[in-house]
Amino acid sequence: MHLYSFVDSATTSKRAAHAAAISIILSPGLLIIDHIHFQYNGFLYGVLVLSLVLARSKSTLLASGLLFAGLLCLKHIYLYLAPAYFVFLLREYCLSPRNIFKIRFMNCLKLGGGIVAVFAAAFGPFAALGQIPQLLSRLFPFSRGLCHAYWAPNVWALYSFADRILIYRKPPFPLHRYLTGK
Fold it and tell me: How far apart are CA 68 and CA 171, in angstroms?
């Protein structure tokens, strides 16, 4: 929610920027995942945040799209964000701001060519060695089921249930006062 407000408006106070940064850095989920599971999600989340920050300006939309393509090559779990990124870049970078039926072909070529180059650099060596089927079976392990760790969803479900219950028991935190200064 915080990131959306920063992508949406370029004028934010330092206090609001600090609140957003602290809420991201101290996110319990990020700390647990990154420091217990050791998949460096903090670094990848930083790449995502950087691509969102680049998306704020019209002059860096291309860099934002290419950075997000690189993020997809680093970890495929960010695929669920790809449709939203696609629609955003299509509307903001590839189509005219005045008429959505007028296509900016040079921008489409730059974005498309850049994304193809990023994916070719990442997956080209695997294709050259004939390893794409092996790569896909490891990225998307449907043969062993979508959830191969049976305990994780149960623990997550219990945590989520307890969180929902505790939301109603805890008095509300006046975050809006901190962000707006009122």
Answer: 38
Chain position carrying tokens 């062993």:
144
Cα angle 3-7-11, degrees, rounded to a multiple of 5: 105
Joined tokens for residue 95: 């189509």
Extract the tokens encoding 158: 């219990």
Query: Each residue of 126-160: pLDDT tens digit?
Result: 999 999 999 888 877 666 655 555 555 666 677 77
Closest alpha carbon to 108 in 121, 119, 124, 92 = 92
pTM score, whole prediction: 0.63
The 3-class SS string of 84-145 reads HHHHHHHHHHHECCCCCCCECHHHHHHHHHHHHHHHHHHHHHHHHCCCHHHHHHHHCCHHHC
Break the chain into its structural domains and give their ranges. 2-141
State how far the alpha carbon of 165 is from the alpha carbons of 149, 158, 160, in Å: 26, 11, 9
